[in-house]
Design a protein that fits this description.
With 601 residues, the chain is of the alpha/beta class. Helix content is 32%, strand content 11%. The strands form four sheets. Strands 12-17-16-15-13-14 form a six-stranded mixed beta sheet, sandwiched between helices. Strands 4-3-2-1-11 form a five-stranded parallel beta sheet. A three-stranded parallel beta sheet has the order 5-7-10. Strand 15, helix 19 and strand 16 form a beta-alpha-beta unit. The structure holds ligand IDE. The site of ligand IDE has 9 residues, from loops.
C-alpha cells in the first residue's frame, strides 16, 4: 500500500515523522551503526538494519578494483538494506580527501596544504565537483571530506590535510563543500543539501580543534581557552554549516582534557543548538573504544558518553554486536532517553531523504567514465601549478633562475621524488598510508612532466642519487633536485624534528655545490631547509601534488607563472614551534603569505 515516507512529493519532515513512527528500537539503532565493508555481508546488513557502510583507508572490494567492481559491491549491500521491512537505504562513505584516493586510476589532486596555497576558492569548488563525479562513478554517495582542521603545528602527521594555519584561508576553502554537494538554494542554506546523483554528501572534520593539539601530537590534547577555540578552530564550521554540509565528524582529540567524543557542550549545546547544525554528527573510527584506557575496556560507558554527547552515527566499525547490544540496554534502562535516539535517527534520515537516496539508492552506471577522466586530470594539473610556492629564485645579487628556458641544453634531474608517483601523492592514496614507487596508480611523475615539456634539443639526464664525479663531469647547465618525505597518514606522520630524510640533504649538497640547482620539495608541510637554503639557487615548495606531475614542469619552464602563496609559516628551526602568523614572536624563514611570482615566458 501507499507509504507516506516513500513519497518524494511529501514534505521532508512529513517523510521523517512518518518513517520514524514506524521504526522499532532495533531499526533506529541500526541506522546509527556504520560498519566496515570487510564485514558488511548482506545478512549482517539485513539482520541488524545497518544504516551505513564505509571503506577505511585502503579498503577495496579487490586490488585495483574497477568501477564496476566497486559499484556491484555497493549494489549488493544496498539490495540487502532495501530487503528489510522498511527498506531504508544504506549510505556508503569513503575518504575522498584529495580525489577518490582508495580507487585505482582515480584523479589524485593536491592535498589540502597545497590547495590552501592557491588561494583560489573557485578552483577548489571545481575540484569538489570533479571528485564528486569520480566517487559517484563507483556508486558511492558520501565522503569523509573536507578536513577543515586549522593545523597550528607542522609536527602533526595530518598537517597536509589542513588547508592552512590561518582560519580565514580554511574558511575560504570550505567552498569545496558546495563543489561536492552542489550549491544549496537560499531556502536550503544552513540545512543539509545534496543536489543530486552527480553530487555527494560531504563531512566537515574533525570537530573541533584537531589541528591544535600539544606539539602536534595526533589525537592528543588541544589546550586553549574557549575564546581561542572560537577564534582559531571553530570558524570553518560556521562556513560548513551555512554551506549546508550534510555531516560533521568528531575529532579523536581532546579539548582541555575532555574527549571531543564525550563533549556534550561542544557537540550538542554549541554545534547543534547554537550553530543550528541540522545534519548528522558521526564519530571517528573506533573513537568510542579509544575513550577509555585501556582501549575498549568499558564500551558500555563509551557508548553512553558518546551518544549522550550528541553523536548520531557511530563509525563502529567492526564490533556491531557490542554497539547494538550496549546501546539497546542503555535505552531500555533509560540511561539514554528515546528522544536522543530519535534526534540521531531524524538527522540521519534528513540527509538520506534530502540527497534522494530513497529515490536513487543504486549506482548510476552512466557515470562510470568519470573516474580518472582527462578533464579532471587537466583540472588537477591547474591545481598543481597554482599550489606550487616559489620561495627562492636566484642567489643574492644574481638574476632570477626561473623560469628555465625550454631550450635548456643538458640538464640533470635528481632526487628520490623526481620519478616517484606514490611520493608525490602522499598518504590516503590506494592504501591508508600511501606508497612510494611508480606502480601505484595512473599518473605522471615530475620527471615525465619535465621530459615532455623541454625542447627537443634539450637532454634530460635522470639520476636518483648522483655521485659528485657524475655531477662534475656531466656538463649540465642546470639541475632540478626533487627531494622530500615519504607518504604517511595520521600518527605515523607525527614528527618532532622535521628534517629532510636521507638521502635528500646529501643529494642537495652534491648537486648544488657543482651546478645551478632548483630544489623542489615534496612534503606535507614545511621541513627544515635552513641548513641548505644558501647553497640552493632556486627553491620550490610543491607539497603533495598528486597524479598530475606535469603541473610542476608547467611553471618551472615558464608555460605559466608561479602564483602560489604560503598557507603555512616556514620555520627557521623546529625549536620555534608552534609559530603561526599573528604570533607576537614571529621570526620565520619564509612568512605566511610569502611566494615569489614569475611570468609566463
Ligand atoms: O577512514 C575513516 C576515518 C577518516 O575519515 C578519519 O579522518 C580518520 O581519522 C580515520 N582514521 C581511521 C583509522 N584508520 C585505519 C586504517 C586502516 C587500519 C586501521 C585504522 C579511520 N578514519
Amino acid at each position: 500500500g501507499y507509504l507516506k515516507y516513500k513519497d518524494p512529493k511529501q514534505p521532508l519532515n512529513t517523510r521523517i515523522d512518518d518513517l520514524l513512527s514506524r521504526m522499532s528500537l532495533a531499526e533506529k539503532i541500526g541506522q546509527m551503526a556504520q560498519i566496515e565493508r570487510s564485514i558488511a555481508t548482506p545478512d549482517v546488513i539485513k539482520n541488524n538494519y545497518i544504516g551505513s557502510v564505509l571503506s577505511g583507508g585502503g579498503s577495496w572490494p579487490a586490488p585495483q578494483a574497477t568501477v564496476r567492481e566497486w559499484a556491484s559491491m555497493v549494489t549488493e549491500m544496498q539490495k540487502a538494506a532495501l530487503s528489510t521491512p522498511l527498506g531504508i537505504p544504506i549510505i556508503y562513505g569513503i575518504d575522498a580527501v584529495h580525489g577518490h584516493g582508495n580507487v585505482n586510476k582515480a584523479t589524485i589532486f593536491p592535498h589540502n596544504v597545497g590547495l590552501g596555497a592557491t588561494r583560489d576558492p573557485e578552483l577548489v569548488k571545481k575540484i569538489g565537483s570533479a571528485v564528486a563525479l569520480e566517487v559517484r562513478a563507483t556508486g558511492i554517495p558520501y565522503i569523509f571530506a573536507p578536513c577543515v582542521a586549522v593545523c597550528r603545528d607542522p609536527r602533526w602527521g595530518r598537517c597536509y590535510e589542513s588547508f592552512s594555519e590561518d582560519p580565514k584561508v580554511v574558511q575560504m576553502m570550505t567552498q569545496i563543500i558546495p563543489g561536492f554537494q552542489g550549491e544549496a538554494p537560499p531556502s536550503s542554506r544552513g540545512r543539509p543539501f545534496v543536489a543530486g546523483t552527480r553530487n555527494v554528501a560531504a563531512c566537515a572534520k574533525h570537530y573541533v580543534g584537531d589541528g591544535g593539539t600539544y606539539k602536534g601530537i595526533n589525537e592528543n590534547n588541544t589546550i586553549i581557552d574557549f575564546h581561542g577555540l572560537l577564534q582559531i578552530h571553530m570558524p570553518p564550521y560556521y562556513n560548513a554549516v551555512i554551506n549546508s554540509v550534510s555531516s560533521i565528524m568528531v575529532s579523536f582529540s581532546s579539548w582541555n582534557g575532555v574527549r571531543m567524543h564525550a563533549n556534550h557542550f561542544l557537540v550538542t549545546d554549541f554545534l547543534k543548538n547554537t550553530l543550528k547544525f541540522r545534519g548528522f554528527v558521526i564519530s571517528d573510527w573506533e573513537a568510542l573504544d579509544k575513550m577509555t584506557n585501556p582501549r575498549g575496556s568499558d564500551y558500555h560507558l563509551s557508548i553512553k558518553l558518546g551518544v549522550l554527547a550528541g553523536i548520531d552515527m557511530i563509525m563502529i566499525p567492526f564490533n556491531y554486536t557490542g554497539f547494538i547490544g550496549n546501546l539497546t540496554s542503555l535505552v531500555h534502562d533509560n540511561t539514554i532517553p528515546m528522544s536522543r535516539i530519535d534526534d540521531a535517527v531524524r538527522r540521519i534520515l534528513r540527509v538520506k531523504f534530502t540527497m534522494g537516496l530513497f529515490e536513487n539508492p543504486f549506482p548510476d552506471p552512466s557515470l562510470a567514465g568519470e573516474l580518472g577522466k582527462q578533464e579532471h586530470r587537466d583540472l588537477a594539473r591547474v591545481a598543481v601549478r597554482k599550489s606550487l610556492v616559489l620561495l627562492k629564485n636566484g642567489k643574492y645579487g644574481e638574476k632570477p633562475l626561473l623560469p628555465l628556458p625550454k631550450k635548456c641544453g643538458k640538464i640533470l634531474v635528481a632526487g628520490s621524488y623526481a620519478d616517484n608517483l606514490g611520493g608525490q601523492c602522499g598518504g590516503w592514496t590506494i592504501t591508508w598510508q600511501g606508497l612510494v614507487g611508480n606502480n601505484l596508480t595512473a599518473g605522471t611523475t615530475i620527471l615525465e612532466g619535465i621530459k615532455s615539456t623541454v625542447d627537443v634539443s634539450a637532454q634530460v639526464v635522470y639520476s636518483e642519487e648522483p655521485s659528485p664525479d657524475f655531477v662534475q663531469k656531466g656538463g649540465f647547465n642546470y639541475a632540478i633536485v626533487v627531494v622530500g618525505e615519504p607518504p604517511y597518514a595520521e600518527t605515523q606522520g607525527d614528527n618532532l624534528n622535521l628534517t629532510i630524510p636521507a638521502p635528500g640533504p646529501s643529494v642537495i649538497e652534491t648537486v648544488c655545490s657543482n651546478v645551478k640547482c632548483i630544489v623542489v620539495l615534496i612534503s606535507g608541510r614545511p621541513l627544515d631547509i635552513e641548513p641548505y637554503i644558501n647553497k640552493i639557487d632556486a627553491f620550490v615548495a610543491a607539497w603533495l601534488p598528486g597524479t598530475e606531475g606535469k603541473g610542476v614542469a608547467d611553471v618551472l619552464f615558464g608555460d605559466y607563472g608561479f602564483t602560489g602563496k604560503l598557507s603555512r609559516t616556514w620555520f627557521k628551526s623546529v625549536d620555534q614551534l608552534p609559530m603561526n602568523v599573528g604570533d607576537p614572536h614571529y621570526d620565520p624563514l619564509f612568512p605566511f603569505g610569502f611566494g615569489l611570482e614569475t611570468h609566463p615566458s
